[in-house]
Amino acid sequence: MARGQQQLCLALVCLVAMSVSSASAFVFKAGGTGEWRVPGQANASGGNIASYNTWAEHTRFRVGDAIAFTYEPGKDSVLIVDQKAYDACDTASPVDTFSDGNTVFTFTKSGPFYFISGNKDNCNRNQKLVVVVMGPRADNGTSTHTALAPSPAANGVTFSPPSPPPPIGIDISPTPNEPSAAVAKAAGVAGTAAFVIGTMFYALV
Questions:
Q1: Fewer CB within 10 Å: C terminus or N terminus of the chain?
Q2: Angle CA(117)–CA(80)–CA(83) in degrees, nearest 5?
Q3: C-alpha torsion 185→187→192→197, nearest 10
Q4: Which residues, in sequence order, are CB contacts of 83 under 8 Å at separation 6+?
Q5: Could you report the per-residue pLDDT of 72-119, keeping only the tens digit for each?
């Protein structure tokens, strides 16, 4: 009986850890819309896409967050490159390549990440993005690491360290009226965890 209770406690701890981890992450749409195209071109809603780096400067990214890109497969792609390739729009030797048309990339470490279009001409027309990722969010909604210093300027764009993030549970996505996939996932995991915990405790009574 004691061994069964120990296993139950271990299962509860794992479920709670999963729900907390999921609730701390956010999915951001690249540029605020998610559409990956040359800045200034008309998007699906008829508006123009501002500079991706202008958007990134005002967005706080943490380890565990993700960024989503949507584009037409076969006509464009997302490349992760180093700073040298970013500056030169060099598409020859990327760190990673995505071409499925609906790319979601999760940040697993802090530091700068360099994204460019797989179409060199598009990249030369500023279809490129630098994301500076800070440490993961703690349980109280604050960073567990010291904020990064401003990254070096890339093509004249200087990045300042973002201000502290809002408390957990507030979606900091640039599209507040549209809940992020991470928040929806967190709610589902938390609900499942609560149900399982209640069932297990009921079985012990």
A1: C
A2: 95
A3: 140
A4: 112, 114, 152, 154
A5: 999 999 999 999 999 999 999 999 999 999 999 999 999 999 999 999
Q: What is the pLDDT of residues 37-51, one digit of tens each?
A: 999 865 555 444 568
How far, in Å, CA of 193 to CA of 166, rounded? Answer: 25
Angle ∠(122,108,99) on CA atoms, nearest 5: 35
Q: Does an H or E element contain 192, and which?
A: helix 181-204
**Helical segments of the chain, H only:** 2-23, 52-57, 83-88, 120-124, 181-204
125: helix, strand or coil? coil
Strand partners for 103: 69
